Amino acid sequence: MCMPSTIEKFCRMLRSARHCVAFTGAGVSTLSGIPDFRGDTGIFTNPPDALFPALSPSISAETLFDLEQFEKDPTFFYNTAGPLVYPVHEKAPSIVHTTLAALEEQGLVKSVITQNIDRLHQKAGSRRVIELHGSPAFHYCLRCAGIRVSYDEAAACLAAGAYPRCPQCGRILKPAITFYGEPLPLEARRAAEDQAQSADLMLVLGTSLLVRPAADIPRTTLHCGGKLVIVNRMPTPLDDDAALRFENLEEFCEGIS
Ligand SMILES: [Zn+2]
């Protein structure tokens, strides 16, 4: 259990913060039933066979989201990661997603920077969401400029047993998720840097801060004199620099709502 006095301390910090920004990772979405690609209980170390029959421990996130591999054979991505990225039964936002949306509504959180690609923050009602690793919100052609196909259109293609294809050249489209071998989307990275510099309080939720360059975002806040509050099951490299540290995301959100 979080100590009530510590939660109260956090609530005071939040109310007196000038610019609080949230930074979220996979732990926020595992509460919605989305497996963590890199965690201890992730799909690749412990695949839930019934849900993701094409996944096996031998397939790493690096292989699945590898740009070179996608260029060689895009069907591998859609066949393997398809049920994960385009689930037939869409996942519902967790208590963390809804809490952050409520805090934004109250003016207490200014933006959410996320490493997740599941669009659950937007689904929960967050309006200012910076997707550091891109998202499947649209799909584009690696050859033809200006092609944009929505998530819904791509998901409908896949549900019908086809692949989303370029209307101009017929090539299989790539989702705008950042793959290994690609830089982070420039606009998102700039927006995240800007938010991290402005933040006098950053709420770090459900991330072990091991994936760079994304993990540099909270460091920026620290360097600019802002405070960090970290909520994560596993230790993070910035625990010693955090003003407050909690382990359980659900208890934390229940405590502040
Ligand atoms: Zn094309």
Summarize this entry quickly:
The chain contains 11 helices and 9 strands. By secondary structure, it is of the alpha/beta class.
Element string (H = helix, E = strand): HEHHHHHEHEEEHEHEHEEH
Broad shape: elongated
| Count of alpha/pi helices | 11
- Which molecules are bound in this entry? zinc ion
What fraction strand? 5-15%
What does this structure look like?
- The protein is an alpha/beta fold.
- Helix content is 37%, strand content 15%.
- The chain is built from eleven helices and nine strands.
- A hairpin with an 8-residue loop joins strand 4 and strand 5.
- The radius of gyration is 19 Å and the shape is elongated.
- The two termini are 15 Å apart.
- The relative contact order is 0.18.
- It binds zinc ion.
- Zinc ion binds next to loops.
- The site of zinc ion has 8 residues, from loops.
Keywords:
about 260 residues; alpha/beta; six-stranded parallel sheet; three-stranded antiparallel sheet; 11 helices; elongated; binds zinc ion
Could you give the topology of this structure?
Layout: H1 4-16, E1 20-24, H2 26-30, H3 61-64, H4 67-72, H5 74-85, H6 95-105, E2 111-114, H7 120-124, E3 129-131, E4 134-140, E5 149-150, H8 151-159, E6 174-177, H9 186-198, E7 201-205, H10 216-223, E8 227-231, E9 244-246, H11 249-256
Parallel strand pairs: 1-2, 1-7, 2-3, 7-8, 8-9
Antiparallel strand pairs: 4-5, 4-6
Helix pairs in contact: 9-10
This protein binds zinc ion.
Zinc ion binds near residues 147 and 171.
